[in-house]
Specification:
Elements lengths: L12 H25 L7 E6 L12 H20 L3 E7 L6 H7 L4 H8 L6 H14 L6 E4 L3
Parallel strand pairs: 1-2, 2-3
Length: about 150
């Protein structure tokens, strides 16, 4: 199924559940594994969620993507409250030159397609370097959403 589609057409329960399972449920389990693997609170621990501007800015035809990204950001904020000894960051890497770029540009929404065609697409390595700088300088509030362009 196609993730990029008009919300009023989303009726395939199995497809929606599969997307939510991959994008959200698995993250809960992965986070639990993180805490199992690193139980020692005396060790500096950091959790990074790869987020998106879509978590804070709704986009036509991207309801499933936007809603799961928002849910993940909230999940990470809750972890920051529950686990004050863990640094938690939701990092939106900016528009990256990936396969998702082509899917977004092929979207049936002309307004979105025009916006994306006029966007500056980032090399993933450049965004990763910025993330490392943010982590190295500890320049974020635990539980916050930080965008590449912030």
């Amino acid at each position: 199924g196609e993730v990029v589609q008009k919300t009023s057409t989303l009726r395939d329960h199995a497809f929606i559940a599969s997307h939510a399972n991959l994008s959200l449920t698995h993250v809960y389990c992965l986070n639990a594994c993180f805490f199992d693997a690193f139980p020692d609170e005396s060790v500096r621990r950091t959790l990074v969620n790869i987020s998106s501007v879509a978590a804070v800015m709704p986009m036509k035809r991207w309801a499933m993507y936007c809603s799961t990204k928002t849910a993940r950001d909230v999940m990470m904020s809750v972890i920051a409250l529950e686990e004050p000894g863990v640094r938690v960051l939701s990092y939106a890497p900016g528009p990256l030159q990936t396969e998702m770029e082509a899917q977004a540009k092929a979207s049936g929404d002309e307004e979105l397609r025009d916006m994306l065609l006029n966007s500056t697409w980032l090399d993933p390595d450049v965004s990763a370097e910025k993330l490392m700088t943010i982590l190295d300088t500890d320049a974020f509030k635990s539980g916050s959403h930080v965008d590449y362009f912030d």
